[in-house]
Design goal:
Layout lengths: L4 E8 L3 E8 L4 E8 L11 E2 L1 H21 L3 E9 L5 E4 L9 E2 L7 H9 L3 H8 L8 H11 L3 H6 L3 E4 L1 H9 L6 E3 H4 L5 E2 L4 E2 L1 H7 L8 E3 L2 E6 L2 H4 L4 E7 H8 L8 E5 L3 E8 L10 E8 L2 E10 L3 H11 L8 H5 L9 E3 L17 E3 L7 H25 L6 E5 L6 H11 L2 E5 L4 H13 L7 H6 L2 E5 L5 H18 L2
Parallel strand pairs: 1-5, 5-14, 9-12, 15-21, 21-22
Antiparallel strand pairs: 1-2, 2-3, 4-7, 6-8, 10-11, 13-14, 15-16, 16-18, 17-18, 19-20, 22-23
Length: 494
């Protein structure tokens, strides 16, 4: 008899919301997706309308459920994965947000984190959280909302407001306001969570001036958090899994033992190295983070974060207008002069790891009269490979022995980019058959929480490689290109 049991994953990202239904073998049954607008109040500021996030999640989830049911599948449970660090505050009674969501890319609190660094707090924050002091993380965004919205700080102290990253907000809304939780992976991205103690840290709450009453309960990545309100989708569904998008992708990529590594290429790009039960204190400005928490026990990862990957291609489309759709970038770049040495440093909202420079800005250098649309497109794609190389170098300096890099995300369908990635990083690149590893990771956790899987090893059983890309570039040429990139980065940081 055919198994018609299915799992729904809500994948709420930076530029779109998606709902994907999988069967228990990890095969995609159906997908619904909606893009939404970004809000840029000032240079370096990025916001989302929480009600738009919610509306797109509702509509895509309804569409996916109906499509799955038409195919004869029965959804047993749902999981949530999300853009991390993005910060929301809402009224505990009405559910109404008090401010737009402040997105992970937003740099408005760079002055605050710089001041805290000057005051000598950086080392203590890193020791407790595994994170650097940077506006990327949630704590200073939350403090900004409390200090900017009239009466918010007082209301927060009285327990009238809720804080959460996106998964917390969605679970709260899905359960009709009955459940205010955050899974450990998302909590570990706030700068308020003590990695070793696996709980909110009172010293950090004092440092960032955050009242404990506003915080969600921290939960495992798999387990029954609650049930969705029956009025939303025609019946209730158990909500049994949650993880930040990069941690979900690591599970979807079956990076389940120490030493395995994946890199996800979406709006930004994020590399995670499984370090098992060990919290690695990076000496190269990488991040220690929770990979997952199950049955109260955490596994950890070393992470490198690139703030702009797919965002660079979106800029070619929306900012420069040299393409009308992202799929046009590969054939355009293929026409570039291969001898051109043009570099695009995508510091649109600063630079992430290993630089963590909030003041860096975007830069194109090496232009000649012969340069055109194709060369700029090629430089934008190459910037993804160069940034990946920077992270791999930092990982190696922290003791990682990288044999291969598993890749996923929307950009990895580009064969030319994957080959360029292997060439410029001098590393084997492996693309999986299942490109929806983030959503599958969330679905797998939900299935684990609902008892459909017996353990993480079941995730490894369904992972399969689609294609291997091996380095083919001459080492002297690679060294010249990488040296040019590093000079360009230094110019962008002036």
């Amino acid at each position: 008899m055919t198994d018609t049991t299915a799992i729904l994953a809500i994948d709420q990202g930076t530029t779109s919301s998606r709902a994907i239904v999988f069967d228990r073998a990890g095969e995609m049954v159906c997908l619904a997706q909606e893009e939404f607008s970004q809000i840029y109040p000032r240079p370096g500021w990025v916001e989302h309308d929480p009600e738009v996030i919610w509306a797109t999640v509702l509509s895509t989830t309804r569409s996916a459920i109906h499509a799955a049911e038409r195919k004869g599948f029965q959804i047993a449970c749902l999981g949530v994965t999300n853009q991390r660090e993005t910060t929301l505050v809402w009224d505990r009674k009405t559910g109404r947000p008090v401010h737009n969501a402040i997105v992970w890319q937003d740099r408005r609190t760079a002055g605050t984190t710089a001041r805290l660094e000057r005051e000598g707090h950086g080392a203590d924050v890193a020791a407790r959280t595994g994170l650097v002091l940077d506006p990327y993380f949630s704590a200073t965004k939350l403090a900004y909302i409390l200090d900017t919205v009239d009466g918010a700080r007082e209301r927060a102290a009285r327990g009238e407001l809720c804080f959460g990253t996106v998964e917390s907000f969605l679970i709260w809304r899905l359960t009709g306001g009955r459940v205010h939780v955050s899974d450990a992976t998302n909590a570990s991205r706030t700068s308020l969570y003590n990695l070793a103690e696996q709980d909110w840290d009172d010293n950090l709450l004092t440092l960032f001036d955050i009242p404990r009453a506003i915080l969600p309960e921290i939960v495992d990545c798999a387990g029954r958090y609650g049930d969705s309100d029956a009025g939303l989708f025609g019946r209730s569904y158990p909500i049994t899994g949650a993880a930040g998008d990069q941690q979900a992708a690591a599970i979807g990529q079956a990076c389940l033992v120490p030493g395995e590594m994946k890199s996800t290429y979406g709006t930004g790009a994020f590399m995670l190295l499984n370090t098992g039960s060990r919290i690695v204190a990076s000496q190269n400005r990488l991040l220690a983070t929770t990979a997952w928490r199950l049955n109260g026990h955490s596994s950890y990862a070393l992470e490198g974060s690139m703030l702009s990957a797919g965002a660079s291609i979106q800029w070619l489309r929306d900012g420069l207008g040299i393409i009308s759709h992202s799929r046009e970038v590969e054939p355009l770049a293929a026409n570039a002069d291969l001898e051109s040495e043009i570099y695009l440093v995508p510091g649109f909202t600063g630079l992430g790891a290993p630089h963590w420079d909030a003041d860096a800005r975007g830069l194109i250098c090496g232009l000649t009269r012969g340069a055109g649309r194709a060369e700029i497109a090629r430089a934008a794609l190459d910037s993804v490979a160069y940034q990946t190389g920077d992270l791999l170098t930092a990982m190696a300096a922290d003791g990682a022995d990288v044999a291969r890099l598993k890749v996923d995300g929307g950009m990895v369908v580009n064969d030319a980019l994957m080959q360029r990635l292997a060439d410029l990083c001098n590393t084997e690149v492996v693309r999986p058959v299942n490109a929806e590893t983030t959503a599958w990771g969330a679905a797998f956790l939900a299935g684990l929480g609902a008892g459909l899987f017996s353990g993480l090893e079941d995730a490894a059983a369904v992972w399969r490689a689609d294609r291997h890309f091996t380095p083919q570039m001459d080492s002297a040429r690679r060294d010249t290109r990488v040296a040019g990139w590093r000079k360009a980065v230094e110019r962008a940081r002036l």
